[in-house]
Amino acid sequence: MDHAYLPEPWRIKAVEPMSRPAPATLHASLRKAGFNTCLLHSRDVYIDLFTDSGTNAMSAAQWAAMMVGDEAYAGATSFYRFHDTIRGYYGYEHIIPVHQGRAAENIISQCLVWPGSNLPGNMYFPSTRIHQELNGGTFHDAIIDEGHDPSSAHPFKGNFDIGKLRDLIKRLGAATIPYVCVGATVNMAGGQPISMANLAAVRELANEHGIMVVLDAARAIENAWFIKTREEEWRDRSIAEILLAMCDLTDAATMSAKKDSFANIGGWLGVRSAELAEQARSKVLLYEGLHTYGGMAGRDMEAIAQGIEESVQEDSIRARVEQVAYLGNRLIAADVPVVMPIGGHAVYLDAAATLSHVPREEFPAQTLAAAIYERSGVRGVERGAISAGRHPETGANRMPKLELVRFAIPRRVYTRSHMDFVADSIIDVHRSRHRILRGLRFVHEPKHLRFFQARFEPMQGSELFADE
C-alpha cells in the first residue's frame, strides 16, 4: 500500500508541556523585544521555528550515551569515539572539536584568511562571512543566478556558476584565494542543495589553481538526500556513501553538530592537512579548550557520535525532509510566496513578494516575522537585509536579492498538527497583509551580526496592523 505521508520513524517517550500565550502577552512581548523575534523569551513563544540548531530532540540512545561520557580533561575516551565516528562517516583525517560551528569558522578563518584575501562561495552565511571579514578577507558570491530567484524550480539552486568562479579566480588571482567555501545546503538561498556533479566541477577547477575547498557540513546529510533523490546516478547509493563522497571532494569542513547530528551543543573542524590541523589545534587551545574536548563535555561528544550514526538512517532523513515539505506545500496551496523548491531544513517566505508595498529600507522580512509572531506565537527569523548587515567599507545597508523569513523546523520535535497550526497562522497573516502599511526602523543596531540583538519600532504609530 502506498502512503502519501508516512508516519515519523519514532515513538514519543517524553514530552515537554507547551501552551499558547494569550494575545495580550504576544502583543506586549513583541514590543518588549523591540520587534525582534531573536529577543523574545522562549516562554512567550508557542511554536518555535527560530532555528533547527541545537533545538532537536535527542534519542533514547543519545541520552544513554551521555551517561557514559568520560569527563577527563585530557585524552577522554569520549573524544576518541567522537573522533573515530566523524572520521568514519565524513572521512577527514584530523578532527578538532569545538563548542559549535561558528567556532570552527573562527579557527579556520584565523588559520587561512589574511588581509586582502578573497573567499568565493555559493552565497554567504552571516557568521561565516563576518569571521572572514574580521580576518581581512572579502567574500565573493559565485552561486548560480537561480539561487537568487525565489520562484525558480531549479533542483540544485545551491550550485556554483563555474563560469563566475573561473572569472573570479582569473580577476582576483589564485594567490589571493585561500579557499572556496561550499555551503551544502545553502541556508540563505532557502536551504537549497548543491549537486555532486557541481561539487566535482568546483573541486576540479580549484585543483587547477591550487586552491583549497572547504565545506560547511552542518546540513550535508540533507544535501545528500537531495543528491540521492534528484541526481540519477546517485539514486541507488546510501546516504552514508553520498555523504562520504561529498566530503572526499573537499579539503576541510566546518561542522555545527547542533544540526544534522541531533545534538544540543558541539561541533568540529575536519581537515586533511597535518600542518593545518596542528595550526588549528593551537588556536583551539587558546579559544575553546584542550584539543581533545574543544569546549564540550565528554557527554556532549558521546551524544554527537551517536547522533551521527542516527543521522544517516534513511527513514530519519526522509521523515525530516518530508515534514519540511508538508509545511511548504500547504503554504504553496494557499498562494503564499515561498522559496521554491522547498529546502531541507526550513520553509522560507518571500517577504518582498508578500509585503511588496513595504520599501526594502523598512525591512519587510523583519516586519513579516514580527507580524506572524504577534498574531500566532509562532517564531521565525528574518533572513534578508538585516541579516546581510552593512558593507564594511561604505557602511551602507547590504540589500540582497532575497528578503526572506525562515521557519526552521527542529528535528524530531514537532508533529504534523503543529505544522498545520504554523501553516494556518502564516496563511492568516498573508491574507491580511494589506493591513501592514509600513515597515520597521532601527532604534538599536549592533555592529556585528546585528539581527541577533537589534531593536526596532514601527515606521508609523506603534502597531504593525492598521485598523480595518
Automatic annotation (TrEMBL):
GO function term, MF aspect, one: tyrosine phenol-lyase activity
Cofactor list: pyridoxal 5'-phosphate
Keywords, alphabetical: Lyase, Pyridoxal phosphate
Protein name: Tyrosine phenol-lyase
Domain Aromatic amino acid beta-eliminating lyase/threonine aldolase: 48-424
Subunit structure, as described in the record: Homotetramer.
One matching Pfam family: Beta_elim_lyase
Domain of life of the source: Bacteria
GO biological process: aromatic amino acid metabolic process
Family of the protein in this entry: Belongs to the beta-eliminating lyase family.
Organism: Nitratireductor pacificus pht-3B
Residues bearing the modification N6-(pyridoxal phosphate)lysine: K259
InterPro entries per record: ArAA_b-elim_lyase/Thr_aldolase, Beta-eliminating_lyase, PyrdxlP-dep_Trfase, PyrdxlP-dep_Trfase_major, PyrdxlP-dep_Trfase_small
EC annotation from Swiss-Prot or TrEMBL: 4.1.99.2
Top EC class of this enzyme: lyase
